[in-house]
């Protein structure tokens, strides 16, 4: 796969997602890091985002709830280059009905090489890193080249 680059600007588009048993943990993390988070554009799956808005007063664009398509909506935004960072407190100990959607979201985040935190320790590392505040260049698949090779 040929690569090209994408610039993540200083003001990032950040997606926040948490499974039910980890919502308290993500809410605490958002409260603790509110001053950094307020400087970025936030979006979230339906329940997660609504709780973050209620409990932190952060401005969050909400998608549908995860099991109703919210993970897929965020995955689509990632594929379109509209999400720069994914913070996803996913639950490795409880099954969810939309497991294929969860896998698809994590897969697309990997395909498009965006920084992802899937637990609190990595979210802490990410928010303290220059990635969060600086302009960053990431390698991404060269889609035009990919398409050209498949259609020549
Ligand atoms: O299920 C989710 C992620 O897979 C999260 O969805 P909610 O934020 O609506 O609970």
Automatic annotation (TrEMBL):
EC assignment: the record states: 4.2.3.3
Describe the reaction catalysed, as an equation.
dihydroxyacetone phosphate = methylglyoxal + phosphate
Q: Which UniProt keywords apply?
A: Lyase
Q: Where are the transmembrane segments?
A: none
Question: Binding residues for substrate, per the UniProt record?
Answer: 19, 23, 45-48, 65-66, 98
Kindly list the GO molecular function terms attached to this UniProt entry. methylglyoxal synthase activity
Which superkingdom heads the taxonomic lineage of this protein's source? Bacteria
Determine if Lyase is one of this entry's keywords: yes
UniProt key word Lyase? yes
- MGS-like domain spans which residues? 5-152
Q: What CDD domains is this protein classified in?
A: MGS
The record places the active site at 71
The record's HAMAP family line, in alphabetical order, gives: Methylglyoxal_synth (MF_00549)
The function of this protein is: Catalyzes the formation of methylglyoxal from dihydroxyacetone phosphate.
Q: Into which family does the record put it? A: Belongs to the methylglyoxal synthase family.
- What protein name is recorded for this chain? Methylglyoxal synthase
Source organism per entry reads Frischella japonica
Q: Which gene encodes it?
A: mgsA
């Amino acid at each position: 796969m040929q690569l090209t680059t994408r610039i993540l600007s200083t003001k990032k588009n950040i997606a926040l997602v948490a499974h039910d048993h980890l919502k308290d943990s993500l809410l605490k993390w958002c409260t603790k890091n509110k001053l950094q988070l307020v400087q970025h554009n936030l979006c979230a799956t339906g329940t997660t985002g609504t709780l973050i808005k209620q409990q932190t007063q952060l401005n969050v664009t909400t998608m549908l709830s995860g099991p109703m398509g919210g993970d897929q909506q965020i995955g689509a935004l990632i594929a379109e280059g509209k999400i720069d960072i994914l913070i996803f407190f996913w639950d490795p100990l409880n099954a969810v009905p939309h497991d294929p959607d969860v896998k698809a979201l994590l897969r697309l985040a990997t395909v498009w090489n965006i920084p992802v935190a899937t637990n609190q320790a990595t979210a802490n590392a990410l928010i303290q890193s220059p990635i969060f505040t600086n302009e960053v260049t990431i390698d991404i698949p060269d889609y035009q080249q990919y398409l050209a090779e498949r259609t020549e």
